[in-house]
Amino acid sequence: MFKTLAEYSASSWKGSKEYDGLEAVVAAIADGAQQIQAKVRAAVLAHAVGTTGETNVQGEVVQILDTFSSETLVDTLTQSGRVAAIGSEEIEETVIVGESSAHQYLVQMDPLDGSSNIDVAVSVGSILGIWKRQADEKVRDSTLLKKGTEQVAAVYTVYGSCTMMVVATRESVQGFTLDPTDGTFRLTNPNICIPEKTSCYSTNEGNFKGLDSGTQKAVEELRNTYSLRYVGSLVADFHRNLLKGGIFLYPSTKKSPEGKLRLMYEANPLAYIAEQAGGAASSGKERILDIEPKKLHQRTALIIGNKDVVKTTVAVMNNG
Ligand code: AHG
Ligand code: MN
Ligand code: MN
User: Fold this and answer.
1) DSSP symbols for 160-178
2) Would strands 61-63 and 51-55 be described as parallel, antiparallel, or unpaired?
3) 35 CA → ligand 1 middle, Å
4) Whose atoms come closest to the Cα of 263: which ligand?
5) Helix or strand or coil: residue 284?
6) Pocket residues for ligand 1 (CB within 6 Å)?
7) Does the pTM exceed 0.85?
8) Are 144 and 108 in contact (CB under 8 A)?
């Protein structure tokens, strides 16, 4: 029988100085994911698809499920009693939760990634980066602006043909599958490492014309070497590439000169997971995890996947 998330957390983190309290944060994410996946799967029946009519800080139309997912995870993370502050794609300001000695963690999240895919029954997910708050560090907006290298853990979930939750800490990437019979997450993919062999590339080929010449050359080389697989949900494309080998790229385009994806709660968590699994992640200019954040919702280009292919692709992008 597969070990449950609770069994794994207890044996791996409970009592360890470095990860003290992390099991409560990950349990809160699992609880939130459980509620979100149920809502996503019943969304059409519950008239919960479509937009709220508002636009978020990104200037993007907010889906009903974006708001539900953000509110659900803010609630479960707050209830954990271990999270001092939360950044969310759907909330402009930092959510300040508490400053007691128990509030040791900081969480940045994309509560629902790929939300444009919800009403066509294509996989979506949640992405979260987890940082440590320094002892009696004051909690304010700037507290969340920590480099990706300072993350202590990262989590993503995929609400697809099954519900998976991948949890990474230092040199450990563990995959859990939701057991629908009892609502527990079970350790089905222990010690995930990105395969040596790259099998596909993932990019929106519709942006090709808006790419600079170096990036066009890099995409042409990938096109001539690998199969194209592109779901349009970053977390689903990343999950497939992590398990099967592949490279995902959302470079700077004419339409999104800074890149479309967000540094703090899309690129950083997935870059952390990719590196712990033996992969790499770059903005095309620098290692994602080394980027010094300036703003909560800042964007970045993202090239992520097999280390050698990321390296070659970035070199071609820059040498044209
Ligand atoms: P979100 O739904 O959180 O706004 O993220 C959507 C992102 C990402 O999931 C995906 O890779 C990308 O948007 C797709 O963008 P294009 O439709 O421009 O390819
Ligand atoms: Mn997203
Ligand atoms: Mn989102």
Assistant:
1) SSSEEEEEEETTEEEEEEE
2) antiparallel
3) 22
4) 2
5) coil
6) 60, 89, 110, 113-115, 204, 232-234, 260
7) yes
8) yes
Domain count of the fold of the chain:
2
Check if the beta carbon of residue 46 is closer than 8 Å to that of residue 65: no
Q: Which is the closest atom of ligand 1 to the Cα of 112? A: 3
Q: Give the alpha-carbon dihedral of 232, 233, 234, 236, to 10 degrees.
A: -120
On whether both 10 and 149 belong to a single domain, the answer is yes
Q: How close is the Cα of 116 to the center of ligand 2, in Å? A: 10
Tokens for 270?
């997935």
| Last-in-domain residue among 132, 162, 189 | 189
Ligand nearest to the CA of 60: 1
- Its domain, for residue 37, covers 5-189
For residue 238, give the ligand nearest its CA. Answer: 1
Looking at ligand 1, which atom is closest to the CA of residue 89? Answer: 3
Among residues 122, 110, 132, 75, the alpha carbon closest in space to that of 265 is found at 110
CATH number, domain at 226?
3.40.190.80
For residue 112, the CA-to-ligand 2 centroid distance in Å is 6
pLDDT in tens, the chain (320 residues): 899 999 999 999 988 888 999 999 999 999 999 999 999 999 888 777 888 888 877 777 778 899 999 999 999 999 999 999 999 999 999 999 999 999 999 999 999 999 889 889 999 999 999 999 998 889 988 899 999 999 999 999 999 999 999 999 998 999 999 999 999 999 999 999 999 999 999 999 999 999 999 999 999 999 999 999 999 999 999 999 999 999 999 999 999 999 999 999 999 999 999 999 999 999 999 999 999 999 999 999 999 999 999 999 999 999 96
Same domain membership, residue 291 and residue 228: yes
